[in-house]
Amino acid sequence: MKKTFVFVLLTVTGLINAQAFKGKEDIKFDIAANIQNGGSGIRLSSDFGLGENISVGVLGSYLLSVSKDDLGNKPDFGDRIDLKARFNANLGNVFNIDEKVDIYPGLDLGLRNFGAHLGIRYFFTDGFGIMSEIGVPIAKYKPEATGFERLNNQFVFNIGASFNL
Fold first, then answer.
1. For 117-128, how does the pLDDT look when each residue is reduced to its tens digit (9 = 90+)?
2. CA distance 86 to 75
3. CA 80 to CA 35: how far, in whole Å?
4. What is the pTM of this model?
5. What is the Cα gyration radius of the chain?
6. Separation of alpha carbons 101 and 162, rounded Å
7. What is the SS3 assignment for 149?
8. End-to-end CA separation in angstroms for the chain
9. Are 56 and 47 in contact (CB under 8 A)?
């Protein structure tokens, strides 16, 4: 019975046609944990395919857990939130890797900085996958950012789920 179940499972799994980035009019939605120095939170993003390897999108993040400063103060709402417009180069098919994988470097313009990101998505099915992304600021609006101004204005790591819409 176990062998039959495993055989059926492997057969069905082999028939699943998951594709990471389909090109023009493809829509992705990601929900992820946002991890950075001094805080962690939630990140939501959506990307819209404009061409075979190009997408644009929006990103919003909110820090739920934030360290207090030296005086014991907690950041307010404006210090915890970040919104960004983003541009991606979806390169999974360029590198000729598995069609379930998409590697996407890109640029983003947010409330606190102009930055870059590098991400990867892996789709188990046509609608569900996992993602991971790192981001770094290139040009900060306040180069001498101090205290809570450093939140959402530094190296960030994200990991979570991705959905095809």
1. 999 999 999 899
2. 26
3. 13
4. 0.80
5. 19
6. 12
7. helix
8. 37
9. yes
**Owner of token pair 């991971």:** 132
Instruction: Tell me the residue type at 131.
Output: M
How many residues in the chain? 165
**Ordered alpha helix ranges (H), the chain:** 2-15, 77-80
47-65 pLDDT, tens digit each: 999 988 899 999 999 999 8
Amino acid identity, position 91: L
Q: What pairs with residue 33 in β-bridges?
A: 42, 159
The pair of three-digit structure tokens given for residue 131, joined into one six-digit string: 């993602």
DSSP code of residue 1? -
Q: DSSP assignment, residue 10?
A: H
Residues 6+ apart with CB under 8 A from 27: 46, 47, 48, 49, 164, 165
Asked if 74 contacts 68 with a C-beta cutoff of 8 angstroms, the reply is yes
